[in-house]
Write a structure and sequence with these properties.
- Residues 94-148 form the HTH cro/C1-type domain.
- Residues 41-72 have a biased composition (Low complexity).
- This is TIGR00270 family protein.
- GO terms for molecular function: DNA binding.
- This protein has seven helices and four strands.
- The protein has 175 residues and is α+β, with helices and mostly antiparallel strands.
- A four-stranded antiparallel β-sheet has the order 2-1-3-4, with no helix packed on it.
- The model is unreliable at 41-71 and 150-158 (pLDDT under 50).
- The protein folds into two domains: 15-81, no CATH class; 90-154, lambda repressor-like DNA-binding domains (434 Repressor (Amino-terminal Domain)), CATH 1.10.260.40.
- The protein starts with 14 loop residues before the first strand and ends in a 6-residue tail after the last helix.
- It has helices at residues 59-67, 90-100, 105-112, 116-124, 131-141, 151-154, 166-169, and strands at residues 15-19, 22-26, 35-39, 48-52.
- Strand 3 and strand 4 (48-52) form a beta hairpin.
- Helix 3 crosses helix 4 (116-124).
Length: 175
């Protein structure tokens, strides 16, 4: 008999549910902690769809699912959707950028108002930078510590709105 991956209870049927970014096989009691994963049966390449599994009896959730069939194909936003992934070679990026700038670990630490030991541990890959330290390093060394993002692309991102505008793209020709 299958076992719930959250509580360990043996149940005859389990539901595939996405909980904090991970897909788990959960029993009926535990599936409310996440978002139920439904496989599309229309044969469209086996993609998965997510729908909110709420047993709270929320009237707005139940009315929206009955009023429109498109709402069932939209998945609930997860906090992990917005998170950037730290580059696996962040330690090398920091060390290489510091050396290119001609700074010692001590000088970089003073510039960032951090301890030299923090810089040393970051360059050895012993610790991950906090969000605050990551921003300071990216600004000071003109690098990106995010997975798959080039430093040149990072200047295109708009921190205020999260989306690009025409003004972000257009380069004016001053004649």
């Amino acid at each position: 008999m299958p076992q719930c991956e959250m509580c360990g209870a043996e149940k005859s049927s389990l539901t595939t549910t996405k909980v904090e970014g991970a897909e788990l096989e959960l029993c009926g009691d535990c599936k409310d902690f996440g978002t139920e994963v439904r496989t599309e049966s229309s044969g469209s390449s086996g993609s998965t769809k997510y729908s909110t599994s709420s047993s709270s009896g929320d009237s707005s959730a139940s009315s929206s699912s009955t009023s429109s069939s498109s709402s069932s194909t939209r998945r609930r936003r997860d906090m992990f959707d917005e998170m950037d992934t730290m580059a696996t070679d962040y330690d090398e990026r920091i060390r290489n950028a510091r050396e290119r700038a001609g700074l010692s670990q001590e000088e970089l630490a003073k510039e960032l108002n951090e301890k030299q030991g923090v810089i040393r541990k970051l360059e050895r890959g012993e610790i991950l930078p906090s969000d605050d330290v990551q921003k300071k390093l990216e600004r000071a060394l003109d690098i990106s510590l995010v997975e798959g993002e080039d430093p040149e692309e990072s200047e295109w991102s708009s921190e205020s709105s999260g989306s690009m505008t025409l003004g972000d793209v257009v380069k004016r020709n001053e004649d």
